Amino acid sequence: MSKAKSKVALLVIDMQKEYFEEGAPLKVPKGGEVLENIKRLVDAARVKKIPLMHIRHIGKDPDAFVFGAGSPLVKFADELKPKAGEPAITKTRPGSFYMTELDDILLREGVETVVITGLMSFMCCDTTAREAHARGYSVLFVRDATAAIDIGGLSADTIHEVVLAVQGFNFSRVVTTDEAIAELSS
């Protein structure tokens, strides 16, 4: 992470094997597309020395059905492992700010805008974006670097579009990966 003050930070939320491994209960239909777009954003952030926060969810119960502390599926996706000096923040709830050091790191880095990427759009990404908004950060929610799964008889795409509509209504500016990269590069 850069020592220089920065106005923007990239948050990579829950890009864990839990969402990508065959047979995993939370395998995301568009996980591969999201992974590729986040890799592009991470590469851009690293080139520009933009603060990059790797956030993962690990439950308190080691035997939990998902995100159990003892499960190999809680590890970061191989393609997005943090590099030396990049914070790896562990959370136990959907919000990335709740009971973590995220806000302290962002304040220390002089961050005013956070870029939300990761999984799932309707859970941890949505919650983190709302927490960031409530703390006074500007929020960019990356449309094609977040995704959902089917729940409650609704398709993943429907759920994702509803989240984007709600985020865009009040909490975030919804952008594409290309638009977010342009923001990181400016």
From TrEMBL:
Origin: domain of life: Bacteria
Originating species: Candidatus Zymogenus saltonus
UniProt keyword terms in alphabetical order: Hydrolase
Record-annotated Isochorismatase-like domain positions: 9-150
CDD domains membership: nicotinamidase_related
Annotated protein name in UniProt: Cysteine hydrolase
InterPro entries: Isochorismatase-like_dom, Isochorismatase-like_hydrls, Isochorismatase-like_sf
Keyword Zinc-finger annotated: no
PANTHER family xrefs: ISOCHORISMATASE-LIKE DOMAIN-CONTAINING PROTEIN, PEROXYUREIDOACRYLATE/UREIDOACRYLATE AMIDOHYDROLASE-RELATED
GO molecular function: hydrolase activity
